[in-house]
Design brief:
Elements (H helix, E strand, L loop, with lengths): L3 E5 L2 H14 L4 E6 L5 E2 L19 E3 L1 H8 L2 E4 L1 E7 L4 E6 L5 E5 L2 E4 L3 E3 L13 E2 L4 H13 L4 E5 L3 H12 L3 E6 L10 H13 L3 E4 L3 E4 L3 E4 L4 E3 L2 E4 L3 E3 L2 H5 L23 E3 L6 E3 L4 E3 L4 H15 L13 E5 L2 E7 L2 H6 L4 E6 L14 E8 L5 E8 L3 H13 L4 H5 L15 H13 L4 E3 L4 H6 L3 E4 L3 H5 L7 E2 L18 E4 L3 H13 L5 E4 L2 H16 L12
Parallel strand pairs: 1-2, 1-9, 2-5, 9-20, 11-18, 12-13, 12-18, 13-14, 28-32, 29-30, 29-31, 31-32
Antiparallel strand pairs: 3-4, 6-7, 7-8, 10-19, 15-16, 16-17, 21-22, 23-24, 24-27, 25-26, 26-27
Length: 565
């Protein structure tokens, strides 16, 4: 007889472990237990049902128990909750949620893949009201949509600006509902640095989302949300998406060790402290290969790889566990956003000395219709030039660029490696010097001390202190919007007007893209100037960085007019 493999939970982790085990062992008895009515569904696509992008909730279901049985000879028992693990007897207690019957099931190998549960703070008054929702499965998303439709809800508050919160806000907006998005931190999308998140803030604002940052929910009533600041928001229902925590109740009951981050502690092969019990997916603690520290990562891709590795180990197949780096992407209305590895803030928190470049080259050749600027931020270690992470936002293929960086990180690549990386090129897909190559060149110039830079986050301070700023764009570009105190000396006139630039004070240069200001700096350095600084991100980056805070606070602008072209 083959092994008897019992699996708690389906979806990415559990279902993948079951399928891999079946491919390795046709004689194994494999049974999955799922508390809900669906054992395999597209949880990442759940929010898209709200806008009709996914036309029916049934389409979210990927595999039924019947198909698992027919195609894989795997038994999937839905509406069955595992309530206890009895390690001494090597059995689990299972409750049939339809008829209430409890049974004991013996196992040779047990796999825990219960996932994570949404965080619902008890400190929020009214958080358990019937107009408050969380989203974890098909039942949840259908319940939310049915409630909105049945009650003709026109205003919804979404708590939390992470992946689920952003996607819920976008899809409800597309469905014609007015959305208020409340984020307690100073930015949405924690994997991104604050300067990059401002681009997403602008996009949300432009598309009609009432974005509120640096505030949290204190109370929920039938018709409104009261924030911690005292601000009142009209709202028919609330979607809680402020984060998730590993569902470790079963592991704790079984006496399995929990890691320092709150996930189940597993070894190289995803075994728990009981070698006959494996754990995979959102419920476990993982190793971050960049920080060399434990962390958690609730993503489908890593869960599937962990599930495969766990099943392989059951049958003596070796696995190289390299840890995780955290690669992800999201669409925010017309902007695509992706990130991998460490942000600047994460690198600094981990004690890794780092610097970054922020560039805005075109995503493909400008002669071809549909070319747009791509905001690209590359993070690297000092002094080694080792690539630590990247973030990209734009209307083009940001995921392709971030996938390149993710590969470089996994292969321990440096800026020199990235500079020389040979990539596909066609005018419709990119430029001969791709975004990632371009960022590496700029970063190497900084690393080797060829010039200095100032981030967009420091520009307001420069303007308010009346620093000497040179705008090297052409007069027409300057007239379409510029920094209040910037002097317009176009690159084409620089050598004739160099006498207008002082040598006894710091000089800051910027343009539409960093290429022209870099050329200006190199020319001026050749003329004996040694106190020059390039403003990263260009005028477009400055406008994107300033816009959201200007709009919501009413503070004085540092630009004559915004220009996002």
């Amino acid at each position: 007889m083959g092994k008897r493999i019992l699996i708690v939970g389906g979806v990415a982790g559990g279902a993948s472990a079951a399928a891999r085990a079946r491919r390795l062992d046709e004689s194994a008895e494999i049974i999955m237990f799922e508390r809900g009515p669906h054992v395999s569904f597209s949880n990442c696509a759940l929010p898209f049902y709200l806008s009709g992008t996914v036309s029916s909730s049934e389409k979210l279901v990927l595999m039924t128990p019947e198909r698992f049985k027919k195609q894989y000879a795997i038994e999937a028992r839905v509406n069955h909750e595992v309530t206890a693990v009895n390690r001494t007897e090597k059995t689990i207690t299972v409750k049939n949620l339809v008829n209430g019957e409890e049974t004991e099931e013996a196992y040779d190998v047990l796999v825990l893949s219960p996932g994570a549960v949404p965080v619902v703070p008890e400190s929020i008054k009214g958080v358990h009201g019937n107009n408050v929702f969380t989203i974890r499965n098909v039942v949840d998303i259908k319940y939310l949509k049915d409630y909105i439709d049945a009650n003709q809800i026109q205003e919804v508050t979404v708590a939390g600006g992470g992946f689920i919160g952003i996607e819920v806000a976008e899809n409800l907006t597309k469905a014609g509902i007015h959305v208020t998005l409340v984020e307690a931190a100073d930015q949405v999308m924690a994997p991104f640095d604050y300067d990059m998140a401002q681009i997403l803030h602008k996009e949300l604002l432009d598309k009609g989302v009432n974005l509120i940052t640096c505030d949290g929910i204190a109370e929920i009533t039938d018709s409104q949300v009261i924030l911690q600041s005292g601000r009142q928001i009209s709202s028919g229902c609330v979607v809680m998406s402020i984060g998730v925590r590993p569902e470790t109740a079963l592991a704790k009951q079984a006496g399995l060790e929990i890691g320092e981050t709150g996930g189940i502690l597993v070894n190289h092969n995803y075994q728990t402290t009981d070698p006959d019990i494996y754990a995979v997916g959102d419920v476990i603690e993982v190793y971050n290969q960049l920080t060399c520290r434990p962390s958690r990562l609730a993503l489908a891709g890593p869960a599937q790889r962990q599930a495969r590795a766990a099943a392989d180990h059951m049958y003596g197949i070796p696995h190289q566990n390299k840890g995780v780096i955290g690669s992800s992407c999201i669409r925010v209305f017309d902007q695509n956003a992706a990130s991998t590895g460490l942000s600047v803030k994460a690198a600094k928190q981990a004690g890794i000395p780092c610097d970054f470049v922020y560039v805005l080259p075109a995503d493909h050749v400008g002669l071809i219709p549909g070319s747009h600027p791509m905001h690209f931020k590359l993070v690297y270690e000092i002094p080694t030039g080792r690539i630590l992470g990247a973030q990209a936002i734009g209307k083009g293929a940001v995921d392709k660029r971030i996938d390149v960086i993710a590969t470089m990180i996994t292969m321990k690549g440096t800026l020199e490696d990235l500079k020389e990386l040979e990539l596909c090129y066609s005018p419709v897909f990119g430029t001969a010097k791709d975004v990632v190559n371009y960022a590496a060149l700029v970063a190497l110039n900084l690393l080797y001390g060829r010039f200095r830079q100032v981030p967009v986050s420091k520009v307001r301070e420069l303007v308010e202190s009346n620093a000497f700023i040179v705008d090297v764009r052409e007069p027409g570009e300057y007239a379409a919007g510029h920094l209040l105190n910037a002097v317009n000396i176009p690159l084409s006139q620089l050598r004739d007007r160099v006498g207008e630039i002082p040598k006894d004070v710091p000089v800051y240069l910027h343009c539409r893209s960093s290429q022209r200001s870099y050329n200006a700096i190199m020319a001026l350095q050749g003329m004996g100037y040694d106190n020059l600084h390039n403003i990263s991100g260009s005028y477009l980056g400055i406008c994107c960085y300033e816009y959201y805070t200007d709009q919501v606070t009413g503070r004085d602008r540092i630009v004559t007019k915004y220009n996002f072209n």
